[in-house]
Amino acid sequence: MNRLAQLLHYCQKVFALKRRLRAVRDQRPLAQIDTSAVLVCLLLGVFLRVSSYLDLAQQTRRRHWRHLCGLQEPVGDDLFGYVTERLEVEDLRQGLAGCAKTLKQNKALESCKINGLLFLSLDANEHFASRSRCCEGCCQRQIEETGRDGQKHKLTEYYHRYVFAQLNGPKINVLLDVEPIRPGEEECAAALRLLGRLRRVYGPRFFDAITIDAWYAKGPFLRALDKLGWAWVVVLKREDMEVYQETRQLSQGQEPDAAFEDPQRERGVQLWEVKDLGFSQEYGQPVRVVRSQEQWTETRQRGERRERQARQSLWVWAASAKLDGYPALIIYYGGHRRWGIENKAFNELTQGYHLEHCYHHEPAAMLAQMLIGLWGFLLFGAFAQLHSKLVVLGKITAKALAKELDLALEEDLPWEQWFHTG
To answer: How crowded is residue 134: how many other Cβ atoms within 10 Å of its Cβ?
Structure first.
């Protein structure tokens, strides 16, 4: 069967994609091209990993592409910028959330759970750095650059930052939402806006706990997480923190509370835990701290020789009181789960989905395109990891699957009937 037809049939059958796309509105006063047609075009661009609006406009010259998207004739790249500036981003978020909820209802997120708990990874990422172009949503910083004269000069660099929320596991990775960090704003403030919206859109029980980096190890932020009702695990890296020093002193020289082999990370692990430690005056509540010492052997190529070197690392996590009934092993796995957003979201989106490319430098359009990208990433990932046996068995890569989707569009099928029926 045609691979692209399979994908579209899967998206319609499982996620009711046509209905969700038709629910997205925009604010164009005199729209000559239907919003849904533009959205199908943008989403298809994500599936096929089209790198820019200019390339997307070139794709609309293909007869079957136009039939599938419901376009009467080829369009210019300015249409996509004009429409994305005016799309209702809350409608896009509702469409993305509806698909994520369907995955959970279908038990597709069970593999993401750790001892029955669903951990949300939260982190920020930087995009679209420029030294010449800026908009009202750009953050700014001063950087030093060595000029041709050999002298150092200070320059203003403009960039955008977003906070992402992700559920990840061995089978599937789902990005739930994204929130831009405003100029001059702390990352924690944007993260709290994002979490507050997640609670409203997904409900307080869609996930159980949050795993976060050391940047969020601040009393006011952790108090806010307690009020939102979620458990949390945060990495501790600052050795000058009193809770870090106390953990080190109280666990030094003690027998580990747990020792095991982690087959997934190929490491020997020893865990120590210390309970009822004061985190900070700002937080004002006791926390539980888990210290992990990990050892493994690393093979490196030096010239023609391969050398094996013993390596070790030390990790310290603080966990909220809501996780007191769970063993230290859960804190260990939950703490390391945070790296999934780096490895399985940022890296994959950058390498395969052109995350670093700015399609249209306008804040509303950038956010809309980001949400469409996350939506397409979810649908493509669900099809590849849950439906396509070739990908699951490792006989084809996701990149090769995207290429097959592109080639499938050349086949003579009744593409014009896909969106306009059902």
So the answer is: 17
Report the alpha-carbon distance of residue 204 to residue 195 in Å, rounded: 10
For residue 97, give both structure tokens: 């959330």
Could you tell me which residues come within 8 angstroms of residue 215 by beta carbon, excluding any fewer than 6 positions away? 124, 187, 188
Beta bridge partners of 120: 210
Cβ–Cβ contacts within 10 Å for residue 188, how many? Answer: 19
Pairing of strands 173-180, 152-168: antiparallel
Say if strands 117-130 and 113-114 run parallel, antiparallel, or are unpaired: antiparallel
pLDDT tens digits, 34-60: 999 999 999 999 999 999 999 999 999
Query: pLDDT digit string (tens) for 227-262?
Result: 999 999 999 999 989 999 999 999 988 999 999 999
Phi/psi of residue 114, each to 5°?
-120, 110
What distance in Å separates the CA atoms of residue 50 and residue 177, rounded to the nearest whole number? 22
CB-count burial class (<10 Å; 0-12, 13-18, 19+) for 171: middle
- Provide the H-helix boundaries in 360-410: 363-382, 389-392, 398-408
DSSP 167-178: EE-SS-EEEEEE
Type of residue numbered 251: S
Task: Give the span between the Cα atoms of 207 and 165, in whole angstroms.
Answer: 11
Q: Which residues contact 90 (CB under 8 A, 6 or more apart)?
A: none
Look at residue 311 and give its three-state secondary structure: strand
The per-residue pLDDT for range 261-285, each reduced to its tens digit, is 999 888 999 999 999 999 988 998 9
CA 14 to chain centre: 22
CA 382 to the chain's CA centroid: 14
Cα–Cα–Cα angle for 316, 318, 323, rounded to 5 degrees: 130
| CB burial readout 202-237, b (16+ within 10 A) else e | beeebbbbbbbbebbbbeebbeebeeeebbbbbbbe
Report residue 306: phi and psi, to 5°: -110, 120
Decide the pairing of beta strands 209-212 and 231-235: parallel
Report, in angstroms and rounded to the nearest whole number, the Rg of the chain calculated over CA atoms.
24
Torsions phi, psi for 115 (to 5 deg): 55, 40
Phi, psi of 376 (to 5 degrees): -65, -35
